[in-house]
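Obj: model holo form, ligand = N-carbamoyl-L-aspartate.
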Amino acid sequence: MNFRGAHILSVAQFARQDVDKIFRVADRMEPFAHRRQVSKALDGAILGNMFFEPSTRTRVSFGCAFNLLGGHVRETADVDSSSIAKGESLFDTARVISGYSDVIVMRHPRVGSVAEFAEASRVPVINGGDGSNEHPSQALLDLYTIKKELQSQGGTIDGMSIAMVGDLKHGRTVHSLSQLLLLYKDIRFTLISPRELSMPADIVDRLRQEGHEVAETDDMESGLQDNDTVYLTRIQEERFTTKLEADIYRGRFRLNQAIYTRHCQPNTVIMHPLPRDSRAEANELDADLNQHPNLAIFRQTDNGVLVRMALFALILDVEDKIADTAADVGWYTERRF
Ligand code: NCD
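Output (holo structure tokens):
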């Protein structure tokens, strides 16, 4: 694909070579993300960061990624304080905000809303999550993490096995990640969820049609066996009509040190898009795994900055200017962990 000026709305836009390209650029962003260098490639550029649903990681890491390339970030984080609360259409908001920005990241609770917004936008729009539909930048950072984790064990994405656990019906991260994996060969998927929260049938059908092996189960213990990666998710409470309905499923599938030791193969990489629901009644990923070397959740969040920098660099076409404008930083940059 031609990245210059492109909207990023769905993982379906990418061919395998596009993903390779994003990952190659992401690799080159390490000196900036690790605070050894600063770049001015996007000096003066403005990111409109529009989040009409709660977000910490996605919003802040897109913002930091833009800052690290030298650009400025404008936040619109709260629907109640924006004109959408006065009945403004997405069309009008898009026309207005795109007059103030060079690129926009948008998250919104309604499926398809970001694509609708992008139609009316005069500048490129990145989907930061549209309801339960898609979250393409998360899938890219998840895959980038999987690639690195497996590489460190001598493995590859082709031929890998992954267990996805939890609310696979409403989880946009697993929808995007599984579809991004369609670009690779011979993946074995084990989809572990309550029956009512299973992966949408159209996605499962496509995975099978493309020759991948898919097993669906509501038995976590058997499902966890023999996977390179286990990807846990939170019950997406906000997609249920009532909290009580979500409570039925909360806490049903949990991973902790004891379960990991008993049921997972020793090298299984542990992933979660975060936030993990750490309340006692949920606790899908226990803090007793926090020191586990295969716990990749904070490597995922760190990698998010690299991948998001790469997307901005490619969309705004400054990929070749980053090194030219790079300078060493002069402040304290050591990290404790
Ligand atoms: C996810 C999301 O918003 O879809 N979070 C994220 O962006 N890392 C997952 C979730 O909220 O459960």
